[in-house]
Design brief:
Elements: H1 5-14, E1 22-25, H2 28-38, E2 43-47, E3 60-63, H3 66-76, E4 80-81, E5 91-92, E6 96-100, E7 104-115, E8 120-126, H4 133-139, E9 145-149, H5 157-166, H6 174-190, E10 193-204, E11 209-211, E12 215-218, H7 227-230, H8 240-247, E13 251-254, E14 259-263, H9 266-278, E15 285-288, H10 295-306, E16 313-320, H11 325-338, E17 345-351, H12 354-364, E18 368-371, H13 374-398
Parallel strand pairs: 14-16, 16-17, 17-18
Antiparallel strand pairs: 1-6, 2-3, 2-6, 4-5, 7-8, 7-10, 8-9, 10-11, 10-12, 13-15
Helix pairs in contact: 2-3, 5-6, 9-13, 10-11, 11-12
The structure holds adenosine-5'-diphosphate and magnesium ion.
């Protein structure tokens, strides 16, 4: 789960990381009021959307008067911000963060990620932070500092100082930088984060060190024990298909293709997506219904996939071990009887209670295309999809 910059800043500030004064606004009037509260003569108005690269997309505006703050906020609210990271659909701005502008001397990069090869939290830092960090990591990978943290002892003072030195921080401010680094690490560890990124961490003209941007992501599987974090979820920033699926306890990832997939097991779901590609089309989603799925759960999964406007054919692929083919079949029939679909449906069942499952499908009288193997299922769904497309084109042409 991702959160907004202002939420990440509030969390990090609680762990001793220095941030500029700022306040959230839901309207241009409130934004101008925030600027007055903060004081000073320069502010930045920042779109709060779940993406990076807002600066390059016009989502961060420097302002020199309350009127400018009002106008900047007015221009951002309701706007669909398309950044390098959002895809063409962008993200809509419903909140802005107003922050005192900082006199930046240098922009640094500080990130914390899970390093899967060492199975540890890794600190990634660079003396050249800011909006060009992607190019720097591609062109000068040797300039990136990496430090692995031993979980049993946590981040050591010397490690934090070493990183600060590596970033070229003035000796008088090493301690301050180190406490920002240690605080970010503790926030990561204590709150089950999967990522903390401060880009840029800046050296201010006075020499002090401040986090100007902050991003945090959290482990979805740990949210049950972090109610204060799960409250920060902002569904307006998520793919609506994924939000619906998460609310129904299904493991779902929306994709760009046309074939909706309902599969049990993540490995089989990946293999199914590969086979659809091989057969000449693309999957519209990844969906794992999990083990021991009840007919109701299968029906929910079916309705979810069918409600996606991109879906032009559906493939159900079940290799039942803990699952039961008869329950899956009941779920499919239930979903199709409640909401008849206009797209071809291909079902492949194998494993536990497969005979009963096949019988339920056959007796339902529904126009379900059956397949015996995964390869056959993928081929049949792509063939049916192609035919349906041609048919639809003809209908459009003759109407
Ligand atoms: P993003 O990473 O989404 O583009 P940032 O918060 O990093 O958004 O802002 C982009 C750039 O805007 C920063 O690299 C920094 O140069 C500038 N900036 C952001 N916040 C401030 C601030 N409070 N004062 C001065 N400049 C800022
Ligand atoms: Mg940034």
């Amino acid at each position: 789960m991702d959160i907004h910059e202002y939420q990440a800043k509030e969390i990090l500030s609680g762990f001793g990381v220095r941030i500029p004064p700022g306040g959230l606004a839901y309207s241009p009037e409130q934004a101008a009021y925030r600027a007055r509260e903060i004081g000073g003569s320069k502010w930045v108005v920042k779109a709060q959307v779940h993406t990076g690269a807002r600066g390059k997309a016009g989502g961060v505006k420097l302002c020199s008067s309350e009127q400018e703050v009002f106008d900047a906020a007015n221009g951002l609210f309701g706007k669909r911000l398309v950044t390098q990271q959002t895809g063409s659909q962008g993200k809509i701005v419903y909140r802005v963060y107003v922050e005192g502008a900082v006199a930046i001397e240098r922009e640094l990069y500080l990130g914390f990620v899970l390093d899967r090869s060492s199975e540890r939290i890794m600190v990634v830092a660079s003396a050249s932070g800011g909006m060009e960090i992607e190019e720097i990591s591609a062109n000068q990978p040797e300039s990136i500092l990496r430090t692995v943290i031993e979980p049993a002892v946590g981040i050591r003072d010397f490690q934090a100082r070493e990183i600060a030195f590596g970033l070229g921080i003035d000796p008088a401010h090493i301690q301050e930088a180190a406490s920002n680094i240690k605080g970010s690490y503790r926030a990561f560890r204590d709150l089950d984060a999967t990522m903390v990124e401060i880009n840029p961490l800046v050296v201010v003209e006075s020499g002090s060190i401040v986090a100007l941007d902050a991003k945090m992501s959290f482990d979805d599987n740990a949210l049950f024990r972090r109610p204060e974090i799960s409250e920060l979820r902002d569904k307006s920033q998520e793919d609506p298909r994924e939000t619906q699926a998460a609310d129904r306890g299904l493991s779902y990832v929306g994709l760009e293709g046309k074939i909706g997939c309902i599969v049990n097991g993540a490995g089989l779901a990946m293999a199914t997506m590969d086979m659809i590609k091989l057969a000449g089309s693309s999957p519209a989603n990844f969906l794992d219904i999990g083990g021991g799925a009840s007919p109701e759960r299968v029906a929910k999964a079916f309705r979810l996939v069918n409600s996606d406007k991109n879906v032009e054919a559906i493939l159900v692929n079940i290799f039942a071990g803990i699952n039961r083919c008869d329950w899956v079949a009941q779920g499919i029939v239930q979903a199709l009887e409640d909401n008849p679909v206009s797209v071809p449906v291909v079902v492949r069942l194998a494993g536990t209670n497969v005979e009963e499952g096949r019988k339920i499908l056959a007796q339902s009288g529904l126009p379900i295309i059956r397949a015996a193997t995964l390869a056959e299922a993928a081929e049949r769904v792509v063939t049916a999809w192609t035919k349906n497309q041609k048919h639809n084109v003809k209908l459009v042409a003759s109407s």
